[in-house]
Amino acid sequence: MLDQIAHQEIANDLNEWYKSIKQRDKGKATQLHQEIRDRLPNMSENQTVLLYYSLIESRYELLMERFNKSGEILNNINKMKDLEKNTDDMIQYYFYFFSGVYEFYQKNFTQAINYYKIAESMLHKIPDEMEMAEFHYQVAVAYYRIDQHIFSISHAEKALESFKANSTYYEREIYSEMILAANKLDMLCYKESEANYLNAIEKSKSAGSKYSESLAYFNLGLCYGRQKLYSKAAESFINALSNNELKNGVVGIKAILELTHVLYKNNKSENAQSWYKKGFSRAEKEGEKEYEAKFIFIDGLYNTSDTLSMQKGLGYLESQNLWTDVSELCLDAAHYYKNMGDTANSSLYFEKAHYARDQILKLLEELK
């Protein structure tokens, strides 16, 4: 009886830990991780609870941006013999769901969605509305990254409805509103998108969530950039970078990249080069090859006129199947060369953008 209570106590702690992860409360998540890890050796052996711990730990490592560690944990679980036969529905659901989240962070968006589809077949066996909301949120983000806006909006709206009903998940409510705004932006509904982002900023301020506020400013910058309001875009990116948590994470590198880009577009070349050096150095140091490649492309286009460097950057993005990004960069280059009167290069990059869009459609065929 005591052993069962011990198992249940640890399981309850794991539920609380996972809740803090979904709420992006890094401080609490780290504290609970340490407490549970210290108590785990004193728990009598229970394979289900140990597996649950490993799965939540893999999700925790993603929150902390230790992606390789998360992948190692999931890989070790996957090596288990007869995983599906020897585990219950909850363990199987979390394995496939977290595998999808991991693949998303690895930029393998179609693979992420394929994992999500397996997890979805088990979702009805997880009697937790907030878990369903979390699932819909993650799926919405993945579909957004492969330009499947209708699917993304459908899942985002389901997530938003549930998160709104639970005040402890206010950050997820804000994030769900931002993914709706991102879809609207891609669908050229600029005013609606801007209104959503401004609303997300106000909600973040009211809740005292500095990270959500900075992330909303980052996305607002993208919205202004699309409308060619480059000064307002730059101001928004700088606001985003004023938050240390965002600045020091992967999103910080992305914000510097986007800031560099709009500064070049606004003919602020000296300022752009200063930010380029900071951003490229960080991307190189932190092994963020996607952003390295994008910095190389942007610098080659606007600063050095180095077409070989531009092709090198594009080549890496193509090798990673980041076709949406390839398409956007090529369209940007095509318009740049068109404005410069360089018809040959303009035509070349319009063709490259069109090819990239075709590859996105081919990626969709990989969805099972």
TrEMBL record:
<protein>
    <submittedName>
        <fullName>Uncharacterized protein</fullName>
    </submittedName>
</protein>
<dbReference type="InterPro" id="IPR019734">
    <property type="entry name" value="TPR_rpt"/>
</dbReference>
<dbReference type="Pfam" id="PF18801">
    <property type="entry name" value="RapH_N"/>
</dbReference>
<keyword id="KW-0802">TPR repeat</keyword>
<feature type="repeat" description="TPR">
    <location>
        <begin position="214"/>
        <end position="247"/>
    </location>
</feature>
<dbReference type="InterPro" id="IPR011990">
    <property type="entry name" value="TPR-like_helical_dom_sf"/>
</dbReference>
